[in-house]
Amino acid sequence: MMSRRKWLAGILVAACAAASCAPAVSAESLWKNPSGYSTRSAFADHRAMNVGDIVTIIISETTTTSATRSSANEKSGSVSIGAGVGIFDFLKAASASGSDKFNAKGSASATNRTIGNVTVTISEITPAGNFILEGTQSIWQNRNEHKITFRGMCRPEDISASNTVLSTRVADATVRFDGKGPLNAKQRQGILTQIFNILF
Length: 200
What we know:
Layout: H1 2-21, E1 54-81, E2 94-125, E3 131-141, E4 144-154, E5 164-166, E6 171-180, H2 182-186, H3 191-199
Parallel strand pairs: 1-5
Antiparallel strand pairs: 1-2, 2-3, 3-4, 4-6
């Protein structure tokens, strides 16, 4: 009986020793990302939150300016002379008066509206947690280039679930529209016209 217990105890000791020497085994996901970069769960929030993430800016800006100016000036005066006495009795009483009045009013107004979309990336995250957005979109058409450059800063909560943000929610926003090509060259004034405008 004792020999059997010793035999079982020896088997248990050997099994424990083998288990301690065996290499660690870890389970790997069947959906391994071949690029090696970490991926988010299908149930996670896919809003942009890291440097390099893509955000689409919905540009909808309306600027209205108006100015009204008016001026008024009025002046009047009068003079009178009494009838003469004594040797000046031939002078008759007389009076004269005059007035000058000027009124002017003017007004001007202008409305500019810009609509478009541009896709940018998060280039930096500030210490306060805000996102710096930067990007350039270039479109070529009939040898003409139309370029939109955007830069600004937004809060993470201003980005929608579809990774879009309104330009009106972007602080320090700079939107620049540039172009070059035959069509844009025709829209510029010629050298002679520019010289004439400078001189006259």
